[in-house]
Amino acid sequence: MRFAPDTRLSRVQDLLATELDQETVLMSIDAGAYYGLGGAAQSIWTILEVPVTFSELVDRLVKEYRVSPQTCATDLEPFLLKLEQEGLLRVE
Amino acid sequence: MSLHTYWAYGLCIHADLDCPELPPYTGNSGSPDVTIHLLPALPTASDIPENRACEVQPGIFRLTVPGVARYRVEEGSRIIIEPLPDAPIETVRLFLFGSVMGALLYQRGLFPLHGSAVETPWGAMIFVGVQGAGKSTLAAQFHHRGYRLLSDDVCAVASTAEGLQILPALAKFRICTDAFERLGAPQEGHFEVDKYVVPMGAGYCPHSLPLRAIHVLQIVDAMTPECVAPAFQMLSGFDRVQRLLENLYRPQYLKGQQTQAMLMRLAAVIARKAIVAVVTRRPNPCEADELVDFLESVWADHFDIIPSAEQNMAIHAEAKI
Known about the structure:
The complex is a heterodimer of chains A (92) and B (321). By secondary structure, chain A is α+β, with helices and mostly antiparallel strands.
């Protein structure tokens, strides 16, 4: 597991966001890149508005999506790694 | 010092320098929305960086162009220009009506798209696209057919009680010299870098108009077999916002603006209320005429005529005769 329960996750500043239909659209001015987050990705992004630990994030998603904490953590990991790679997420 | 009064981007502008790029203000004299102040030239010894430098802070924008001027834009309502010694005033104005005006539009919470706009019976149509996609050339082609232009280079979109409006600006437009060779040389105008600058006169629409569609121009490889004719494809979802943001004028100026959250919301409003479409065409510039025919037929098929827009155009046509 790349993320420990107490790994702190927060949004990288300097991203601009807007809502369109059921999606959050992110813009990174520096990278000139655009991202559309829908469904669970949008929920995760909303939760990350305030920095959280990995286990807090899992707890909140488990309540929202009725999945087991184990499945949630496993599914979450690649998504968080992708956010980090794209420079959207700070992992500490 | 003489005072010049202009009307652009829905703003009454008072300037203490002559700006032939801007249409004159014809309304009642009142308090201006924007004032432009030209200060005396800076002393040679001034601390001017060697490279172009720009700084965006909430409510303040600073731009220094070596050899030209130092500009400051304050609270969307005041532009202060300190020219450098021997800077040609035309060059000082070139940056004033490019980057500096772009920054002012951001400060005012308007959505500045990099492109050209024309008035049509179906509402205002904007053309955006990467450099060389043919935005200005297509607008010039429409102008040649008797359509009035709303703006060239920077199109300001505002969300108003009447819906989305495009706020017209510059009374001149710049097009590639090769486009001119096809359209015939104009009576007046002058060359500026690689573009030809033409005053628009009666071919300019000075009123705000409802925005109907934003067209992203794309040139496709002539060798692509499926591309035998121009194509028009409306976008949906995320693509619409992405295309709008990609075509912002000087997007780097959005950073650090107080209005950035408002602008991002406006992007979503524009995406929902206006049509965002990709228009593909072959690289041959001689087909610009064909593209005008094509777009006219697409608009007639997809959109309803806006009675007030049609009326405006009829008045213009009458005035021309």
